[in-house]
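**Discrete fold encoding**
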Amino acid sequence: MQLIFDFPVNPKFSFDNFVVCAGNKSAYHFARQLAEGDGTENLLYIYGPTGSGKTHLLTAVANSICSAAGLAAIPTISFRNIDELYRGNYPAEEPSKLAERFSNAPALLVDDIHLIPDNVNIRVELWQLFNDFHTAGKKIAVTGLYPPKELPRIDDHLISRLLWGLVAKLDIFGDESLRMILKKLAEDRQIYLPGEVIDHLLIHRRRDIPSLLNALEQIRHHALTTKKKISLRQAKEALQR
């Protein structure tokens, strides 16, 4: 059964359509190195604010591993949705649900580790699973909101292990980086986004990628339905609806 936190092969989030800029190039190169390399580096931790591209890169890693292994999907966990697996019950005596989840998996992919529940049993499960994959030489990629030493509810020994591998920060909220991303998002949708529209979005909208993408879709949809050329005036009309 495929749960909502399986990562199926999804070209929407690939290395090819990830917009590389000054604030994310290290994370991008490390993720490709992990996914496509010879196993010399098999541990990666990526951190950064919400909407900075962590899940995009983790999904790109999953897609690459799936492609190499001929798989349709690869299991993962997002601690944002962990109750889908545990239903709020974390008994110590039962077999590890995480171990069952990742049985025979080619890699351990963990999203939003900063949201791990404050429960000793699940921390023990995660530690054991991490050790099993690390000992087996399998690839491990983890994302979180904070640097390893600032992660809440994570035991010191797991923090220490995360620091053994590659660690990269995503910081894309400078104007130059966001302009590059907006231009690429527009190009992917085969539309031209004037510079004054980009400036307006950066001043008047939230600066995380999901919010900017939502604004871009509003502008595109309005232009298509009204048959108007995208301009600052048109964009303002679209965003007022």
Notes: Residues 20 and 29 are 9 Å apart (CA to CA). The chain is about 45% helix and 10% strand.
